Automatic annotation (TrEMBL), chains A, B:
Binding-site list for substrate: W359, D360, K602, Q603
Domain Glycoside hydrolase family 65 central catalytic: start-end pairs: 324-690
Organism this protein belongs to: Poritiphilus flavus
Protein family membership: Belongs to the glycosyl hydrolase 65 family.
A GO MF term: hydrolase activity, hydrolyzing O-glycosyl compounds
Chain ranges of the Glycoside hydrolase family 65 C-terminal domain: 699-760
One Gene Ontology term from the biological process aspect of the record: carbohydrate metabolic process
PANTHER family for the chain: GLYCOSYL HYDROLASE-RELATED, MALTOSE PHOSPHORYLASE
Catalytic residues identified in the record: E490
Protein name, UniProt field: Glycoside hydrolase family 65 protein
Location of the Glycoside hydrolase family 65 N-terminal domain: 14-268
Keywords associated with the record: Hydrolase
């Protein structure tokens, strides 16, 4: 844990007291998003201290040059940079002509931020004495509407405390923004128009190269003691900036407020030449409701989300706050409404990593969205990959694969690979397996087989063709081998026979063969269409069968475990416990060669296989592998603790499971990895959800039915969650005494608790 | 072979006929250099066609940003870019106001280039009809003085053929130059003054960041039919450019010539504020001699070089031309006069690769310089590394090594690492071994032990400390292992137990231990100084002994060969002969992952060990390893064919040896690797020399004496070379009939030919 300033609270993230060093961390933690846009918790008023300005629009990116010193064939042309978008939240504030700037105020007291997760708003309040000795109270409330997802709303209130003053508000739009991670001083945005009409203003700008057209807009209204002041603003207009100036005398104790609506209309959703019109329409809809109604609707919308996705924990406020923080940000990032979008690893909270889609989506996020949303949301995520199949085949071709072999990109925005480390882009091929697994997992969980004949089988064929070509035969071993890969543990590169990769490759081949048979029998028309479209030949499927049957898996007789890769045992096997703490995190302390030749594991690798294919192995096997690998694991990926928490729970090591749980759920709140200022770790937040539902709750699908093996950390009194299983809603509460289950809807449901069959009737809670 | 337009000639490189597509290739092939500066064979007059402009100053570089997408700890701060320097050769030519430009002439005939290697000059002549229908004959002669190495000279002659005309010459200097490989649009040069005095002009400019101050200068004289025309030029001056304009009426058949002296004075050799004065002094010295005397001196200087370093081949003009081309360019690149310089991989012929020093110097170039120059030249090259020892230790520290462990950089200008691919920078650590081997080789060849107590032992200690820390103990193998390396074959990255690396590491440790004992006994004062300075502890040397004794070497019982690395046999072992030709060169056709998992070898790897340590292995072992590895070798490094040629000769496979010889000696002339336009492969040219002297000639040092096992390709009648062995000059001529040996100097020399002892008396040739 590297920070501890967030006040523990059931439903809110709260910071009290103004400390400049915490500004960037809080800008991440208090970020807002509504699936379509979002921004860091930057101050509305000017702040001259250290800050990381960031506003983001979903699906809008820039193809940054991926120039590297020594180009390798097959490198992608660009790196998809998550772009800092024009700023619409800005409101410069002057009190008696003195600029309000928390960095220069003589004193700041009562500073408080609250991110109210239950209701979906963010508020900041403080009292400050400006350099001109005038004191004011400020309260700024902001939210991004879930209902009208092009609209955000701000109410900025100033109350003079030391005497009568003149307050000047200058709400503005600004497109002179850059990225923090801008490497080559490139210009990302081209501003084409800056205009103002009455109390509205607009900046039209498009991204360079990708040509996403956007209109950033605002509308402002002035209120004095809550009553509208009908004041025509004066306009200040610059090349990349437009502001409205409102000035009003305000007596001591009275409150002057600026209400600002703002946001983006984007050519992804509107005609490029109608963006201003669309902006006007959006503002008309919003202002016809008014701030209060918008806020009331916001609370309702979040209430509906929580109704389905909340996990409540009794008796442990920090654990409670952690899980809600995770669920809140997942919902801020992706709501499943737009199948062109995906779950960016930093959501709307930062720029790092680039691209929107990693294997995180399939391996970590889909279970959360399946269980807490309508199944169409998960199906949209699968459809996203189906829509990218052709690009995945092109990507395979760039690397020399042929005949429809698909290699899905490691990082993508639109289906094209946009990451350029050879050891990742070319070698971290297990991502293909996660995509196939998600298809299996989706059907296993939702029971909706239709995706497979409609789309999934083609994806599976492309993926299996890749594995079929990527595996090679070793005469020496008399087995098929997969050489030169990077496994989930990215602290090993270019290894041979990574067990996880080989295992999931074999599984993909077998699963594809099974689905081919199933579709052939059950959906002959689809089958014919697919065979026609893919041109699948019999020799291919025969080859897949051969490879699956003869794939090599490194194994140590001595330790009785599968080996992470060939040669793993040649390392100096010093456990993390015996590693000097000053050397941690090794990814900040060690050069790459040293990391590579060490035994240290960034995140679950062999154990990732045991997680996905848990039912293929006995509890004893899991225990042996957990005991062998976890001691070498440094958990320097945000995706690591959750898997280990789930497995520790399964092994009934509840203390360890709880420690891992805290680490995953409060990773950002407590800044375990010393990087929260760069943004939040969104995708691993779904892993936190899993660590409760699958880990402590022990949720599994066994023979098409739900099964629970509930456990509870001793620190908790009880916890409860809801899941949508095959369109039936089940509420589960687990305490030290019992497990209570309650089913919504009309049909009864049969399930298992601790292996025992329970039949639930709707509306009749059962306690086990 | 990808081109075949160079006329075969014993002593010259000749191109006949003007073809625009060949311009860039010829610009490389006809490059000039004098160890201190050089330039590609760009035309003096303006050329609007495709050209690659390049002028270079030894030791002047730019630290380019080495930004990569994902920074890894330990990456160097910069990449040392070989900088295109201001141009001093330019002479714009106008005939009746029409610009002479070979790209726009109505016709060009009799175009001929000659690089006269024997005498060290370059000449270009042609007849051309300009767009205004005026015809002229042009002859341009250029050389870079070996005696006055800041001076180059040009005589540019124009003879009107179609009538009386007015000829205008505009000799100029130009600092508005950029690099072809300029990635980030950086500005490399900052021009601080542009000036003109009489018939002289100066541009002062310094490199950004590195602040090398330079003065580029020129002086011009006009001659009419060989007689000086005393004409004050008019001056044209721009921000980064200065030209002198000479205009003269010239009758049909008469010749107007412009003689231009030019070059650079640099703050590496002069005070920064005295560069113009130094330039004036250089021009005064040169012009007091005059063009003819300068040229005569040039011929003498080259004659002296050839006297010692020539290899003559009788009966095979192409082979003859090839070896002389190689020897010529080696001497143009590095003359051993300045121990701050080294042998850049592209010399003064291009920008690619960057940096000046690779392991090429120690592994390939030192034998050539030892045998064809005074031994001080090779000693200078060793001293260069001694001077960089501290930086090598710092480099080791950046990667986590401690206590004086030295890792020499893979690429450097000033001792700092300046290359940033992790698999090379961090892992291609065998370079350390080549540096130690060069120390051994220098003593073996020259008999000069003094370098070791004076400097070499400290280098050896630093290197052995590195190996001592880099090797780790594998409990599993019960041996020391070296994990995560890249061997000489860069088509494998991050492999374990690369046999070559392990072998040279073991040898380094043992050789260092031996030298420690030897210096302790023979040079006790040096020993005490060194122990004091390095703080070497007994436990360190004990550890080195342990590691050397227990290092692991991968071996295949089945094939009875050492394995290139762990797991090599898991590959699909399809030989190059069975690889579709359309797939070659694989480094242009395949993605990196495919190259890595293939068995294909870029350049000698295991065989590099057999080359360096030939005497450790039997002929049968060499044969077995050659037969195992050569069939997988694609020779896509310029350093590959020479080693294989030497080994094929040793195995008495003369046809194969000859094929490899042609490939190494005419690599650039015939453009085997499809990249001659980028510049020449300088360092591998020393390998060509080795392939004759060590390969065909069979030169070895056996028990402190020369030994020859001469062979001769059937295509040749005879060949002869000279070597300086321990300050005695031996001339060797090998024909199909006999070997004749002739010794210069005063002492007699005992040596072996085909294993038989021969005693040579000075001046008395012996035929064997």
């Amino acid at each position: 844990m590297n920070q501890d300033y967030i006040t523990a609270d059931q439903w809110s993230i709260i910071e009290e007291g103004f400390e400049k060093e915490r500004v960037q961390s809080s800008e991440s933690l208090f970020s807002l998003g509504n699936g379509a846009m979002g921004q860091r918790a930057n101050f509305e008023e000017n702040y001259s201290g250290e800050t990381f300005q960031g506003s983001y629009i979903a699906g809008v990116y820039y193809p940054d040059k991926t120039r590297v010193g020594w180009w390798k064939n097959g490198y992608p042309e660009y790196f998809a940079k998550v772009l800092n978008a024009p700023n619409w939240i800005g409101i410069n504030v002057y009190v008696d002509e003195e600029a309000l700037d928390l960095n220069t105020c003589k004193s700041v007291s009562g500073f408080r931020r609250e991110l109210n997760m239950k209701e979906g708003w963010y508020q900041r309040s403080f009292e400050a004495t400006l350099p001109n000795d005038v004191s004011v109270r400020v309260k700024a409330t902001r939210f991004l509407s879930l209902d009208l997802d092009e609209i955000g709303a701000i109410r900025f209130e100033v109350t003079p405390l030391s005497g009568d003053v003149t307050i000047k508000f200058v709400p503005y739009l600004d497109s002179s923004i850059t990225n923090e991670d801008s490497n080559w001083d490139d210009k990302f945005w081209n501003t084409t128009s800056v205009s103002s009409e009455g109390n509205q203003a607009f900046i039209e700008a498009h991204t360079m190269k990708t040509n996403f057209e956007t209109c950033t807009f605002m509308q402002s209204d002035l209120l004095h003691n809550g009553k509208a002041v009908h004041a025509e603003p004066s306009v200040i207009q610059k090349e990349l900036w437009v502001g409205h100036q409102y000035e009003h005398k305000t007596a001591k104790g009275e409150t002057l407020s600026l209400q600002k609506l703002g946001g983006y209309t984007v050519s992804r959703n509107h005609k490029a030449d109608a963006l201003i019109a669309a902006a006007k329409e959006a503002m008309k809809n919003a202002s016809s409701l008014g701030f209060e109604t918008l806020m009331a609707n916001q609370k309702k919308a979040w209430s509906a989300i929580w109704e389905m996705s909340d996990i409540s924990i009794e008796g442990d406020v920090k654990a409670q706050q952690g899980i809600r923080f995770n669920i809140f940000h997942l919902n801020q990032t992706y709501l499943g409404r737009d199948s062109r979008l995906n779950i960016g690893p930093k959501g709307f909270t930062g720029e790092k990593y680039g691209g929107s889609t990693y294997w995180d989506t399939e391996a970590y996020c889909i279970p959360f969205y399946m269980a807490t949303k309508d199944h169409s949301v998960a199906r949209n995520l699968l459809t996203y990959r189906y829509n990218h199949l052709e690009k995945a085949i092109e990507n395979g071709e760039k690397l020399g694969f042929t005949d429809g072999a698909a290699l899905y990109p490691m990082v993508t925005m639109n289906g094209e690979e946009c990451h350029n480390e050879w050891e990742i882009t070319f070698e971290e091929i297990h991502r293909n397996g996660a995509i196939a697994f998600a298809i299996y997992n989706y059907y296993r969980y939702t029971g909706d087989y239709s995706y497979i004949p409609e789309m999934g089988l083609e994806v599976l064929i492309g993926i299996s063709r890749f594995w079929g070509q990527r595996a090679t035969f070793s005469t020496h071993k008399d087995k098929y081998v997969i050489l030169g890969v990077t496994g989930p543990n990215e602290y090993e590169n270019n290894v041979n026979n990574n067990w996880y990769t080989n295992y999931i490759a074999k599984w993909c081949l077998q699963y594809t063969l099974e689905q081919l048979n199933k579709v052939k029998e059950g959906y002959p028309e689809d089958y014919d269409r697919i065979i026609g479209h893919t041109g699948l030949k019999e020799f291919e499927t025969e080859e897949w069968e051969t490879i699956a049957g003869q794939l090599y898996f490194p194994y140590s007789e001595e330790h009785n475990v599968f080996l992470q890769q060939d040669g793993f045992l040649d390392k100096e096997l010093v456990t993390v416990a015996d590693l000097d703490k000053s050397q941690r995190p090794i990814n900040q302390k060690w050069s790459w060669d040293r990391i590579l030749r060490s035994p240290y594991i960034k995140q679950a690798d062999v154990l990732q296989g045991f997680y996905l294919f848990e039912d293929h192995f006995s509890l004893e096997e899991l225990e042996r592998h957990f005991d062998f690998y976890e001691p070498f694991t440094v958990h320097e990926s945000s995706l690591s603790p959750c898997v280990h928490s789930i497995q520790a729970a399964k092994l009934d090591r509840m203390d360890q499971a709880y420690t891992f749980y805290l680490r995953t759920s409060r990773l950002d709140l407590d800044d375990y990895n010393k990087e929260v200022h760069e943004g939040l770790h969104i995708t691993s937040m779904a892993g936190t959800w899993m660590s409760i539902v699958e880990g402590f709750g022990g949720l599994r699908i066994v023979e098409d039915k739900l099964s629970f093996t509930p456990r509870i950390p001793k620190e908790w009194e009880a916890y409860s969650f809801k899941i949508n299983f095959r369109n039936r809603i089940l509420k589960v509460r687990i305490s030290h005494e019992d497990v209570s289950l309650e089913l919504e809807g009309k049909e009864e449901m049969s399930l298992r608790v601790h292996g025992k069959r329970v039949v639930l009737a709707p509306g009749k809670p059962v306690s086990v």
